[in-house]
Amino acid sequence: MAERDKPHLFISTARAAEYRPPSRDMDAPALAPPPDRAAHGTKLRGDLRQVEADARARRQNIDVTVEGALEGTYVVFESFPGIELALNTLDPRQGKVHPELRSVQEGMDSSGQPVERATVFVPDGTMKYFLDRVSAYLESADEKKPKNSPAIDRIQEIRAASIESLWTDPPQEFPAPQQSVWWEVWLRRRDGQEVMRLRAYAEATGMRVGRQTLGFGERSVTLLYGTVEQLATSVDILDDLAELRRPHDPTDFLAANDAVEQREWTDELLDRIEAADDKSPAVCVVDSGVYWEHPLLKTSLDAHECQVADPTWPRHDTWGHGTEMAGLALFGDVGQAIAGSETIRLTHRLESAKILPPPKPPMSDESDDESESDSNEPELFGAVTADALSYVEIQQPTRRRVYSLAVTARWQTTPPPGPRLPMFGQPSSWSATLDALAVGRRVAFEKGELTFLKQTDDPNPRLFCVSTGNVRKDSWQDDHLTRSDIEPVEDPAQAWNVLTIGAYTQLDTMSGAPNEFDGWSPVASRGQLSPVSRTSVAFGKQWPIKPDVVLEGGNIARSPEGTEFDAPPNLQLLTTKAPTIPGMPSRPFTTTHATSAATAQAAALAAQITAQYPSMWPETIRALIVHSAEWTPAMNAQFAKDNKKGARVALLRRYGMGVPDLKRATHSATDALTLISEGTIRPFLSGKMREIHYHELPWPTDILADLGDAPVKLRVTLSYFIEPNPGRRGWNRRYSYASHGLRFDIRRATESTADFQKRINQKALAEDETRPASAEDTGEWFFGSRQQQAPGSLHSDIWTGSAADLAQRGVLAVYPVTGWWKENAGKDRSSDGARYSLIVSIETPGQDVDIWTPVAQAIGVPVEIEI
Predict the structure, then answer these.
(1) Which of 204, 256, 466, 696 is 20 to 30 A from 76 (CA-CA)?
(2) Cα–Cα distance measured from residue 196 to residue 207, given in angstroms and rounded to the nearest whole number
């Protein structure tokens, strides 16, 4: 392949057209009705009346009142096994006061069959909505299709809600009785006073509300400390409750490891470093702080660029982890930088956003009060992250930056082998915060207390690199791939808009290992997934594929007997070290590994791309990193074992798109052309599809046609940021998590441009015109529609075929799919436009042709001609 020394080419904006999806033949099986509809309807009507009467009776026996709270009843609707509820019928939104769907759970009935449970708040006086629908159903029960049967046939049971009904984390994680714990409370935002009402209830019942509140559109999230019993009566007093979840705590950090201590290395490297100036982009290390006085960091990080989420915390690194990440975020592999001899011209700087509090002081020996150890209020990490980032951006408001977040929170439940579990991969308050910040929401402080993620007319999109989290040491094993496949990506790495980073390794030799590791052997082979890296294989299929890419994260070793596992320093990466006591002499280096190290390197890569293309959108930088990634030979060997597309997607959930490369991400070659388009589409209008974009690609048609049957490769990556809707209300129809989705399709070799448009867009058909039959697709997409249509805001696939066929495929469409914007027209921001980045590349391996120059000339890019 030719040297990559050409810039990527930016192409003009696409042509927008009116859009309506083509009609589809739906072969869904008919819903089996209850055996006796009259009896079924009578039972449900009785359930509704009993629930309402019992709720009124309970309220008469409760002496706690909260000013401003609406009286009403929380009701649970449970489906028949294997059936989904008609959620839209449970949330009519008719009139000023109406029943409102608060949360949806997927669970099991007493026989172990899957059921869906929806919790609805029914204000006093509005139960009539449901009673009238059931009555109409009963009056027509003898008909073939009774009134309201599509909804009522699905409901098996109606009962009063309890605190357990509002719990949307796995049922086994529900707190034990009489145990004081922290709850993550999701409140429906009605009048801005919902947190004050919760505080009033907490004061009356002896509980405590956390100091931070996080806002997402229709939801406010805060923390509450108390027992199940103290919280139990809230369902009869507060109308604001939507969900209860378990707060997520960040994971433990890697312990410090021994490292080669040679201060002259530091001095030698310092002589070869040229730091970037203040106007350069930066990697903001969102972690435990950074030791800015480290000799290798201080020319790229000033003390005033180190911010903290809480002004009472010290700014320096109190754990050491942030400083380790800073070295990798600045230099990449510090060991390679030291081993070299050339001048290192840095193109980016560092910043620090500290989100982890300093270690708690040890408990007094005299104290035996267990509640005392719980008195330190936990943090709502979405709010803490937003706070820290706001301080960073206030300090340097115009700087381009990439955020590196290598702090994660574990799922409490480990998925067993077998079917994917839906609770893994679902959004949390932390992951939704990152999605909101990524799409450009701003942070505002109100009354010195509340932190809201607000919409803005001038969004400021942000790029986050987030680690998948690590397999714990006590779970390391020889069959590390199987272990990684059942260890789900940790919170907040499931966020849709972030670049999620896993780890692979090229470190497969024990050369240089300390003596205590004589006879030990590496667990992972060269180029394979690191044994510490988590995956999304255990995720439900409705969640995005993670990780997006993998970078070097080191290896682990096993003892000769196979009974012990460890991570010796020779299988880790060298990086910078914070002193144990700030201001005291310390060794300048340590070693680190795992997905944290991979994430810091990914952030460095993103910052380098930003320096190369300063005006490029964060969505595009994310796309370029994924687009530049390739699988190693070891990964490709796994793909070769099973060529079925379903198996390929499972491996995609393990490896992402592979290992990114800076040169591929920033440069084209004469035989490897990359086209970039940054566009803005308006997905919806008044609850209907609105626009499709057609890209007429400046294709090197003649050159490709002349190559005939020569094999070539086409790669397409589509990247955009969604606005999150994190309440657990089903994530379908109006309750979708994503504001919108986008997909791509490309003209097939045997169809005309007109037929291509008619195939994908009903609006392109003339009145009474029949949609043309789909043209046969030539070549092969590596993943195909299963991945191209998968959830998420990043879609990438690779097509291989003949050059002659590729010559005819120079038209590509980007079109919308549904989201909560479409179903909530009053909050639809489609008119503002939704940004997207499209990257298309052609590679002609082994062919001595120049496909870059004619395209550059066609779009008006100056081309230097060698003489």
Answers:
(1) 204
(2) 13
pLDDT at 372 over 70: no
Is the predicted pLDDT of residue 15 greater than 80, yes or no? yes
Rg (CA), the chain: 28
Name which of 682, 650, 521, 613 is nearest 839 in CA terms.
613
- pLDDT band (50, 70, 90) for residue 784: confident
Q: Pairing between strand 521-522 and 557-558?
A: antiparallel
* Residue 752: partners with Cβ closer than 8 Å, 6 or more residues away: none
- CA-to-CA separations, 432 to 285, 500, 540, in angstroms, rounded: 19, 14, 18
Cβ-count burial 200-217 (b if 16+ within 10 Å, e if not): bbbeebebbbbebbbbbb
| Cα→Cα distances 354→304, 310, 311, 380, 384, Å | 13, 9, 10, 14, 9
Amino acid at 241: L
**What CA–CA distance (Å, rounded) separates 521 from 509?**
8
Tell me how many helices (H) and strands (E) the chain has. 23, 38
**Torsion (CA) 853, 856, 860, 861 in degrees, nearest 10:** -90
Kindly report, residue by residue over 538-557, the tens digit of the pLDDT.
888 888 999 999 999 999 99
Q: Which of 133-137, 201-205, 575-579, 669-673 has the lowest mean pLDDT?
A: 575-579
The secondary structure of 743-768 as a DSSP string is EEEE--TTS-HHHHHHHH-GGGSPTT
Write out the two tokens for 253: 């950090």
CA distance 33 to 40: 10
Percent of all residues in the chain with a pLDDT value above 90, rounded to a whole number: 68
**% of the chain at pLDDT higher than 70:** 91
In the block, which residue shows the tokens 């504001």? Answer: 739
The DSSP letter of residue 274 is E
The amino acid at residue 799 is: W
546/495 Cα distance (integer angstroms): 9
Q: Show the tokens assigned to 393.
A: 């951006």
The H or E element containing residue 678 is strand 672-681
In angstroms, the CA 542 to CA 519 distance is 45
End-to-end CA, the chain: 22
